[in-house]
Amino acid sequence: MNAREAAFKILCDIEIEKNYSNMAINKIFKNEKISDKDKGLATELVYGVIENRKYLDFIINKLSKIKVKKMSSFVKIILRMGTYQILFLDKIEDHAAVNETVKLASKYDGKSKGFVNAILRNEIRQKRTIKYIDIEDPIRRLAVKYSYQQWIVEDWVKNFGIEFAEELLEALNERPDLYVRTNTLKIDRDSLLKEFEKEGIKASKAMLPEEAIMVENFKGIENSRLYKEGLFTVQDISSMLVAKVVAPKEGDMVLDMCSAPGGKSTHMAELMKNTGKIVSRDVFEHKIKVIKAAAKRLGIKNIEAEEFDAANLDENSIEKFDCVLTDVPCSGLGIIRRKPEIKYKAKEELVDLPKIQSKILENASKYVKINGTLVYSTCTVQDCENIEVVEKFLKENPNYELVPIEGINVDPEEQEKGYIKIYPNVHGMDGFFIAKMKRVK
Asked: Given 12, 323, 330, 379, which residue is catalytic?
């Protein structure tokens, strides 16, 4: 299977079956015979089309009498792929983009090949002028330019101002750097850097935390010797910071309420030097298997993974833990550059999230010992899911208070207040929120 057909099948899985991009990519790459070179182009096409879907549709609608919303799924996906190659990929010749896209149309929707050919050739003829977005309303213009649901743009302009909002939109459209976390149970960072060098992998120290390494040109990570030996975990810096904020001590009893896929649990296990106990929970059985597999690969012995719904109260866990982490389900609006399909979520999908988050946090607070630590985190930039949830909780639970976050230099002023707000356009990492609280009575 070539790159374009692979990308087409992946995009169909995302568009029609509503699958997540990373899962759809992994499924096709696992089940089909595709060269590494074609995997690279297929991935570029998939993420390029998803990241720019609204803009691509805007361009297609300028030239087509049949609007995108009335096209079949196959035709709209094929046209988006061709348009993306013509307008964004300079390394691909226009004629090649058209010819290969028409071949796809011939195979999967034969009657549309003439239509697809005409639209794409028209795009080439008008390439210099067609990119212009002639929309007066600044909110809608930003929504089309960066391909976001309009409600997200409205929300961010209202909360952050139009300049900051556009910077955030742009930052979340960029391809993220790839970071790995050194498994300090098996190797130190300097030694791991030397191992990467031996394998011909370009790697360098990240500014923080001290376990983090940025890697480049790293293909087939899960098949690499270093990965199989459990010397590192793939994880963004923001996510690494959560375990550092929890700061569990050796011998502690720790509960990770919503643990899958286990990155934060395994990080805490490494910080605890395989001592004490970490109970890692998730609501889905198949995700528990993922946590157990990660712990086994990394040589971690102190994690006990179990199936449990964090929205339910566990009477047997009350006041049992020194540290409780609540990395709650959220809108994911801080990690759009990793999961670009999040851009297109309807506002209605997120309305109930603060209630769910508050319920989980309330349950979590029951499990903490006096003088113990409670950490609340999300991968979103929405105050209604972040600081507002925490403030509501503190108002209703006077036995908890925010405490300064030490040992991390992200935003010292906010850290002194007991929380961190991370924005991709400011900090160069995934958007996150982390709050640290102590049970005082």
From this structure: 379
In this structure, what DSSP letter does residue 410 have?
S
Known catalytic residue at 258? no
108, 8 Cβ separation under 8 angstroms? yes
Burial of 186 per CB tally in 10 Å (0-12, 13-18, 19+): middle
Q: What's the predicted TM-score (pTM) here?
A: 0.94
Distances (CA, A) of 59 to 54, 73, 185: 9, 17, 52
- Give residues with Cβ within 8 angstroms of 322, minimum separation 6: 248, 249, 252, 253, 254, 368, 369, 372, 373
> Both tokens of residue 353?
């999230």
Cα separation, 358 vs 425, in Å, equals: 28
Burial class (CB in 10 A: 0-12, 13-18, 19+), 405: buried
Q: What is the pLDDT along the chain (441 residues), one digit of tens a residue?
A: 899 999 999 999 999 998 888 889 999 998 899 988 899 999 999 999 999 999 999 999 999 999 999 999 999 999 999 999 999 999 999 999 999 999 999 999 999 999 999 999 999 999 989 988 999 999 999 999 999 999 999 999 999 999 999 999 999 999 899 999 999 999 999 999 999 999 999 999 999 999 999 999 888 888 899 999 999 999 999 999 999 999 999 999 999 999 999 999 999 999 999 999 999 999 999 999 999 999 999 999 999 999 999 999 999 999 999 999 999 999 999 999 999 999 999 999 999 999 999 999 999 999 999 999 999 999 999 999 999 999 999 999 999 999 999 988 888 888 899 999 999 999 999 999 999 999 999
Closest CA to 41 of 10, 12, 74, 79: 10
Cα angle for residues 176, 182, 185 (degrees, 5° grid):
155
Q: Return the number of other C-beta atoms located less than 10 Å from residue 82's C-beta.
A: 29
